[in-house]
Amino acid sequence: MAFADLARERFSVRKYSERPVERGKLDQVLEAARVAPSAKNLQPWRVHVLRGADVLERYDELTPMRYGAPTVLVFTYDVAQDWKNPLEEGVHSGEQDASIAATYAMLQATDLGLATLWCNYLPNACVAELLGLPASERVVLALDLGYAAPEAHPSHLHAQRKPLGNLADFR
């Protein structure tokens, strides 16, 4: 599929089938994240793959946003490893780097016939505790991953886009 079609067709899935994600496809999704660019190529992000019934049950206690996905990818970054902008205090790359990696994973998943949902509706500190993360590792987002249920469909807002003139400022 052409990239423009892939980007347009992908939608946030809110109902998954019970079919597990094959390890080969999961590996391809993770490899796509691995090759994503990061500031100064520091690669401060990590992905935590939640697949076991016990961890998914505990995750469900923290957020209603899994929608039955058999796999959840939790993207984090280490504040001790991300790039710091020397020109302005407090500006760093960790969240951006993790988000870029997650975007690559999301688009690769779509290309493989898998469905995703990008989730920020999380109690990040509680997810970090669930995963036993060190104090320097921050949760950025979770990406539900699986096969869409037959009745899954895009939200009514999916196709609504602002005109490009409202988003791009040419100077």
TrEMBL record:
Keyword ATP-binding tagged: no
InterPro entries assigned to the protein according to its UniProt record, in alphabetical order: Nitroreductase, Nitroreductase-like
Name of one Pfam family that matches: Nitroreductase
Keyword Flavoprotein: yes
Signal peptide: none
SUPFAM superfamilies: FMN-dependent nitroreductase-like
Molecular functions (GO terms): oxidoreductase activity
Cofactor field: FMN
Alphabetized UniProt keyword annotations: Flavoprotein, FMN, Oxidoreductase
Cited PANTHER family: NAD(P)H NITROREDUCTASE YDGI-RELATED (PTHR43673), NITROREDUCTASE (PTHR43673:SF2)
Family: Belongs to the nitroreductase family.
Name under which the protein is recorded: Nitroreductase
Biological source species: Parafannyhessea umbonata
Top-level taxonomy: Bacteria, Bacillati, Actinomycetota, Coriobacteriia, Coriobacteriales
